[in-house]
């Protein structure tokens, strides 16, 4: 009862080593006024892990910041608008979350967003490299399979690239897999954990149902349909929204979940594991998503692919070509930048 019943208390709050009930992280959201940015900023404002919330966008940020600043939680909110305020928004940030960019419309693939979003992500990564090169960088902007190579190459140009601190947020794939498996099996989704590896688009999304906890089994046809639904879930939402955008609320939830895991780990919590799309030696792809043990300095250990079923091994083999192409496309974009 009382304040203890506030819904954000559902987020497990870890006592950090300082003996405080929170840490004082400064978190920036770049693209804070958008469809994902607003609900993501709301979830971050609601967390006791966040001390300062820095909101940046090219429009509407003063209003979003004023609105969120009235919420009775400790995070101090500041809004920054326009390119000339980007540097100020990033000064001293511990974590930078980037949902900026344009969403898909019906009939578009994530790769159709490349030309617009590649430029946006490169510009923002450049500012991060100059203003808070040590920050954890969490990229939501699609196509993630290419925007992570873009971010990495921009950081390299400044000599500040740390592969343990650059993450492509694939958490929504895991969240969807958990929800869909729970639905099919009548389980509590909060108890289900399905690792999802590979990338974050179409057939590069590889749910490892064989590694799910609790253990679940599906006949071949149902497994095939479930895998396809997880891979195409973003398009399911794009179609349902009929031109009004793509997944924003579930993406904001997933982005917040990943950010809280990063903050928990930075705070000294042990055993924090999340899948994310990162620089990797686990396959022949330079970037690949697998379960990661997170720590105070980002990735502590890449937990790898684990034991795959024959069905899953085929999914991985099918994904490699497309992933390599998306990675090269991102790297080439930075190489050819003016």
TrEMBL record:
GO terms for molecular function: L-malate dehydrogenase (NAD+) activity. Its EC number is 1.1.1.37. Keywords: NAD, Oxidoreductase, Tricarboxylic acid cycle. The active site is at residue 200. Transmembrane segments: none annotated. Residues 170-334 form the Lactate/malate dehydrogenase C-terminal domain. It catalyses: (S)-malate + NAD(+) = oxaloacetate + NADH + H(+). GO terms for cellular component: mitochondrion. It is an enzyme of class 1 (oxidoreductase). The keyword Cytoplasm does not apply. InterPro entries: L-lactate/malate_DH, Lactate/malate_DH_C, Lactate/malate_DH_N, Lactate_DH/Glyco_Ohase_4_C, Malate_DH_AS, Malate_DH_type1, NAD(P)-bd_dom_sf. NAD(+) binds at residues 31-37, 57, 117, 140-142, 251. It comes from the Eukaryota. Residues 26-168 form the Lactate/malate dehydrogenase N-terminal domain. One of its GO terms (biological process) is tricarboxylic acid cycle. Homodimer. Belongs to the LDH/MDH superfamily. MDH type 1 family. This is Malate dehydrogenase. The gene is MDH2.
């Amino acid at each position: 009862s009382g304040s203890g019943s506030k819904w954000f208390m559902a987020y497990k709050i870890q006592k950090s080593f300082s003996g405080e009930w929170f840490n004082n992280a400064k978190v920036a959201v770049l693209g804070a006024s958008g469809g994902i940015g607003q609900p993501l900023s709301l979830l971050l404002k609601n967390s006791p892990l966040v001390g300062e919330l820095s909101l940046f966008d090219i429009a509407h940020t003063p209003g979003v910041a004023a609105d969120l600043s009235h919420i009775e939680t400790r995070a101090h909110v500041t809004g920054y608008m326009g390119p000339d305020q980007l540097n100020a928004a990033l000064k001293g940030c511990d974590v930078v979350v980037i949902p900026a960019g344009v969403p898909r419309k019906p009939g578009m693939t994530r790769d159709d967003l490349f030309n617009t979003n590649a430029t946006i992500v490169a510009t923002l990564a450049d500012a991060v490299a100059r203003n808070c090169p040590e920050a954890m960088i969490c990229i939501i902007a699609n196509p993630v399979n290419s925007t992570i190579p873009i971010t990495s190459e921009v950081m390299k140009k400044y000599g500040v690239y740390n592969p343990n601190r650059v993450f492509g947020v694939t958490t929504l794939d895991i969240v969807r897999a958990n929800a869909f498996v729970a639905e099919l099996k009548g389980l509590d989704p909060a108890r289900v954990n399905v690792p999802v590896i590979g990338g974050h688009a179409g057939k590069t999304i590889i749910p490892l149902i064989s590694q799910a906890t609790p253990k679940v089994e599906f006949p071949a046809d149902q497994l095939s349909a479930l895998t396809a639904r997880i891979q195409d879930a973003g398009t399911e939402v794009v179609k349902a929204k009929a031109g009004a955008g793509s997944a924003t609320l579930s993406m904001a939830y997933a982005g917040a979940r990943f950010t809280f895991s990063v903050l928990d780990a930075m705070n000294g919590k042990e055993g924090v594991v999340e899948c994310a799309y990162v620089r990797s030696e686990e396959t022949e792809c330079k970037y690949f998503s697998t379960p990661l043990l997170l720590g105070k300095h980002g990735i502590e250990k890449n937990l790898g692919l684990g034991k795959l079923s024959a069905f899953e091994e085929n999914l991985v083999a099918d994904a490699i070509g497309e992933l390599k192409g998306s990675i090269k496309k991102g790297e080439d974009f930075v190489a050819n930048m003016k």
